[in-house]
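anyone seen this seq b4? input:
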Amino acid sequence: MTFGSLKARPVMASTSWTGSVDLYPVTQDTPERGRRPVLDKPTWAMLPQTRQRAMLSDARYLYGQCPQVSGASLRVADYAVGWAWQPRYTGTDARWRGLAETIINRWLDVCDVRGGQYNWRTGLRNACMAIDRDGDIFAVKTKDQVSGGPRIQWVTADRIGQPVAYQTAGQWAKVPNSPETRDYAGMHCSCGIVFDEAMRPVAYNVMPYDGIGVSYTWNLIPAESVIWIHDPKHVDQVRGIPSVASAILSWYDLNETVTAEVIAAKINSSLAMIEKNETGRRDIGREAIGASNLPTAGRTGILETKTFERGLIRYIKTGGAIEAHKNERPSNGWLALMEHLTRGAFLGMGLPYEFAWDSSKIGGAGVRSMVGQVQRMIEARQHVLETPARAALLYAVATYMDRGDLPFTADWDKWEFSVPSLFSVDMGRDSQNRREDFAVGIRTLSGILAEESMSARQHLDERANDYLLAKEISDSKGVPMEWLLNPAKVQPQTEIVTAPAA
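predicted toks r here
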């Protein structure tokens, strides 16, 4: 077969099934080259539960010990979640909208089983940080024991696992046949999640929490009752991977190096002067004897000095010298190495170095590039959170409809969330650009208002309410409406006073 060629002989020459070094350069393992790991297995096989929990422990340690890690994660949560994510009904049933949004707004404050400060936005913000620190987090759909209202119980990554006897490496664990696991007996389980043949989660093993540690027992909860929040990086992974995982060694190196350099800096800071003498040691005998005419005579351990006209005379041996200690730590080379490691560690988290640490070295074009990268990263994180947030919201709406608090409507599932304002380093310029784009028709009002966590309906409703309020006050006070709505455009009125005739 010539594969489209008109030549008499085949274009594709016959080849053997032996390996070729031309497609991929194969090098020999040598001590100079170092270790070459073998990563030719599925992701779930290379991350068994023991390894997953070790990765979780490392990431949590770095989050607690490295201010760069926790600070970057907090900034991402502020820009991706903040205090926005207000649900808004976008269906066509106006009457149902008013009732549903009223009920849901009350639910946002009590949706977490812990109550108090743990509300809707706090949960989403913590979930965003958990993606960086833990890799994943789980929300169990439950109900209040007293009122029967819908609630969410957050479950951290360390509580999803399987008994030690089933922590197999390199292969799937089989769920045993027992009264607790009868519905899932024989299915594959990895890191506490039970999968079917298509790798769809069918159950999660939530280990009971006793206040001190976790008990490795079977406590399977159906997948339809659990919302799994993670940012998948591989199509075959079975657990979330912390965003700091790729830079764990770099963060450890940074933390250890900075600690050692701080100790060295403290030692250097404590040295004020250096004395050079013939022996390189303290002259203890001379210090002890002293001189009869010196104030230091006979005082052991006191250097021989004499006050002279508000100054100090220090007596040293011939050939000795005293010089000030020069503290040159940290050096420029050390600072450059730290910047290199920090920059790479932040890139492993998907964050520009200038956003998370230092933006003083970049100019206008660099700032715009950095802002674009940060915004894409924030939008990606919001996309990760949107599906789980919608699942939790629709669970609440469906529960209230089942209870009879809400009537049924055809498009009950049409909801959207507000998001925080776009990341910006020049709010005035960005606002001007939005006004110009809207004026020429490049952007819509809805798109612009979405950046301010507001819908077009909400904005126009507020404008209409402001107009009606201004009209009411204008009629009652007898003043023009322009004074209330557009005071900047009101022309000042000058009273002309004429002098009386002579």
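The first strand starts at residue 87 and ends at 89. The CA atoms of residues 51 and 182 lie 28 Å apart. kinda curious what u guys think
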